[in-house]
Structures are given as structure tokens and as C-alpha cells.
Design goal:
single chain, 274 residues, two-stranded parallel ribbon, 2 strands, 38% helix, DUF547, DUF547 domain-containing protein
Length: 274
Amino acid sequence: MLKTLSHSSSRLLVLAFMLLTWPLVGSCQYLRYLKELNPTMAGTKPIDHAPYDALLKKYVDEQGMVNYRGFRADSSQLSAYLTTVSNTLPNKQWSKNDQLAYWLNAYNAFTIQRVLRGYPVKSIRQLGGDKTLVNTVWDQRFIRLGNDKDKVCLNDLEQRLIRRRFKGEYRVHFALVCAAVSCPKLRREAYVGSRLNQQLEEQARDFINDPAKNKLTPATAPQVSEIFNFYPGDFKADDNTLAKTLNKYLTGPKVDADIKPTFMTYNWALNEQK
């Protein structure tokens, strides 16, 4: 995830700045983020996410916190599911919801796998370097997709695939979980195409009304998750605004339409059950 930079400027401007100021040695690492990722595989049908669903129900609690020690004991089952994911890429015959459910599950499950490979750890950020788009844990290419010899990373899935292919679907930011306390809660079930809209609506409502993620009083000066600062453009498509997004899902008093929020400090501690 591109979460070690401020996202108040456009992503392209950030990348242009990097190209001008960073040493050439790192350029091949981050130039790929300018290109869309479009893996596909003819003849496949939507996969059964039940094995992953069972693991989530077993090792994730109601607060979305993860029992990584338990998950590690069942790591072979997680690996088997991810092998199915790698070997069964979506195609245009899949419904859009089936495709998005597949990629959301893939991102979250591969994130868990990466944590397990480095566990125990206090923060997922400790598993990588500190150069955004170059060597953070989200830039490590350990994910195989189909028969492609070039592996991809978590940033590839989020930045080059999900955010581009499903442009305008800002609810993905309430479903993608980067293994940190300030991330959205990891859902205790897999995403499935037949119920995806309901699941994303529940994720959005839960995240926005969670006082640990957003402090929305007073209405004139709320404090909101830094996720809204990381991806400001994603919440402005089709005349949308941050205030409209918040008010759509708020169960309490609405925020003012012209709010100028402050952003809460992101807590990168591992989302681990205590």
C-alpha cells in the first residue's frame, strides 16, 4: 500500500517527483506502477472461496483482529487456497462482482500470508524497507498470477489492478486490509460476488461509524481516517465528496457539507488479537 507518503498531491505528480529526484537504481522498481496490471485466464470459472472463508471464521474475531498464531498452524490450508487463486485468474465471462470479490480476497489473503512468513512481528512495515514504491513490504514481489514468470506485489494488486479496473468503487478502501490496527476490520468471511454489494455496504458503514477510525464530532471539524487523505481522488468521482461519503453511512449526526477535516495518525501496529 502507498501509505508511507502523503497523498494530498496527485499520484502522478508524486511519481514524477520520484523519477526526477531518486537514483536511477530504483527506477525500474516503481516505473511499473504507471502501467495497469491486467492478468486474465481464458476458460476459468469463479472459484470457491469456502476454504478461505472457513479460515477467517476460525481466526478472525468480531473486532476484525487476527489470531496469527492460529493462522500459522493452518498455513498449509491458506497456501492451498492461494494456489487456487494463482491458478484460476478471472476473465471477462466472470461477472464484475465475482472479479472484484476475487481480487479483494486475493489481496487480503496474500497479506496474511506475508505476515505469517515473517511472524512474529509488531508491525507489517517491519517486513520491508522504507522506500515507497521500491522496497516496502507492499513492493515485495512474491505473488504468482497464472503462468506469468514475473511475480507481483501487494501494491500491484491494489494500485495497478483494483483501483484502476474498478475505478469509482471507493468502497474497496473499506475492504482492503493491510494488517494494521488503523486499517478497516478484516471481515470474518470471504467476499463473494452474489453478496458483494451488501458486504461492501456493511464494511463502509462499520468503518465510518467506528470511533477508533473516525471521530466525527463536532460536525464542523471531524477527525477522519488518514485513508481519506491517502486516496482523496477516489472519493471525488461523480461529484462525490468526503462529506457525502461520510453522511451516506453515518448512523448518527451528519457532518457539515463544507468540512475541513483533520486526519488521525495511522496506527501501524499489527492487527493481532491480544
